[in-house]
Structure formats: C-alpha cells, structure tokens
C-alpha cells in the first residue's frame, strides 16, 4: 500500500467535469461519426490529466481518475452488459429527478464478456500518474437499480445476484493489474436498508477472493445533486460494522454531522472515510469548519483509522467549486494534523 499521511484526504470517486469536456461528450453522443477512437482517447486522457492535477494541487493524498469516462456515475456501465435493452424514459421534462434516469429491461441472462471497462480506466490512470490511487467500482445492488427483470429475473435481488460474478471478476482483474485500494460503490444500500443481513451476504460474495483493501461507499444518492432516500444510517447499524470490507465511506456534511455518534460503533480494524464536505451545496466550507468537523469525528474514532472525504463524488459540482472545496478540506485536515503533532 502506498504510504499515506495521518488523516489522508481523498475523494469519493468522480471529479468535476471541465466545461469543454462536457461539450465534447455531447458532441460525440450527437455525432459519433465525426470522432475516431484516437480523438476520443485523446480527450479522455486530457480530462483525466486535469482531474489528477486538480486533486493533487488541492492537497489530496489519495486520488482517482475522476471517473471521466463514466456517465452519471454508473449509467455508462450498462453499455458493457449484454442481455438488456433500453427503455424510453417516462418523463423527459421538468425538474430533474431519479425517474429520468435511463432504465433497461433484461431480455437474456446478464453478462459482460469484456468486463465493465474499469481495468482500462486503471491502466490509463497508471500511465498518467504515480500518485497513490484508489479505484471505484459500482456494486451489484446499485447496478441492479436501473434494470427491470422482464421475463428473466423475478426481482431486484435476483438481478443483483446475477451481477455479483460480473463485479467480482472486475475487482479481481483490477487486483491482477496492480490495484490495491478498491472502492465498492453501493449508495443504494443506504436508501434500502430493510434487509441488512442480506446486503452483508451480497457484499461478501462480491468481494470474495479480492486481495485488496476495499472501501464500501454508501451515500444517499447524488443524481443531479439530489438525494434519493431517507438520510439515516441508523437502520444499518450495527450490521454495517460487520461488512467484509476494510473501510466504510459515509456522508455526514450534508446532514450537518447528524448521527456522527454512530462512528463509535465502528470497531478496529475497520476504518472510516468520513464525508465532511457537502457536494450538493454551492457554499464552500471554510477550513476552520472542516477542522471542527474532524475534531468532532475524532471523539468517536482514533485518527489512525480515519480518512477524510467529501460526501460523494464531485461530478454534479461546478469545477471551480470542487477545487475550492477540496483545497479547504485539505487545509482543515492539516490544522488537525498539526494539533496532533503529525503535520503535513
């Protein structure tokens, strides 16, 4: 594992897209015949370079590729799945909400013959930087959320079961490529906490045989900067503390640190990546507030088991705000490091 400082600062996964890159992606979608594979790869590489530079300049200790090749966090992954067909959206107009996300119907058993594309993302990232990195991968329960079983699967649980070997293979292939810090993105767990034991069992099968540090990320949704579930982790505790992973990544800033006392239930050796910046808010948290939030979290967990993150990815955040928020996050953490005698 790359050496990280005390209270490492990182991001959850996605980075804010540069304006020119958004326009490029729109043009490619509208006129794919105008762009060759080399044109597309050049643009993706340029966007990833900017994501790397933005994160490092802001003071992040552990970075990602910004998820620059993905669409709305997980929607792009359905392009890698076989056995599905797209469905027309029921609503196209009006205020954005989760019902406007694309849906797919299963017409045959699910498969991903060429993987989910994350290995190629990791190879590109490693060509562009030697900095410490982590690799986010969507979990099977969350991926199942945009799929309708049709005549193939009875319900969401059956769809998730079918996706487990696909996600597990992707995780193991990433480890084989040299990745040693993986993040399993399962925000849907926090939004559907009714059967926590079944969720734990699903996680166990998903990470089986994965010889890497795995962080389990659970927020309350961030599609168009909107949450999608009742924002409480309480129903998942203490079950969540027994998840077969090494770290939990949870959001607290958007809820003004509500339920932070739950952190005391996260026992060693389990770690916590605590969300202390609200990515849904255009207000930039000052460093002194970040420092106070870190101190508040340290009442319940020792610093050696704590990482500091924004609540969720920055893909729904303007780039200038993302840079300011991450820089202030790092500045606030550095204040606490100095107080602990472990300065930056």
Structural class: alpha/beta
The quaternary structure here is single chain
Number of helices: 9
Helix content: 25-40%
Concise account of the structure shown:
With 344 residues, the protein is an alpha/beta fold. It is 34% helix and 13% strand. The longest helix has 22 residues, at 37-58.
Verbal overview:
The chain has helices spanning 19-30, 37-58, 118-128, 140-143, 156-176, 187-191, 196-206, 287-297, 319-339, and strands at 82-87, 103-111, 135-138, 147-148, 181-185, 213-218, 247-251, 271-275, 306-309. The longest helix is centred in the N-terminal third of the chain and has 22 residues, at 37-58. It is built from nine helices and nine strands. The protein has a six-stranded parallel sheet with strand order 3-5-6-7-8-9. Strands 1-2-4 form a three-stranded mixed sheet. The two termini are 19 Å apart. It has a single domain (19-77, 110-339), classed as Alpha-Beta Barrel (TIM Barrel), CATH 3.20.20. Helix 2 (37-58) packs parallel to helix 9 and helix 8 (287-297) packs across helix 9 (319-339). It is globular, with a radius of gyration of 19 Å. It has 344 residues and is of the alpha/beta class.
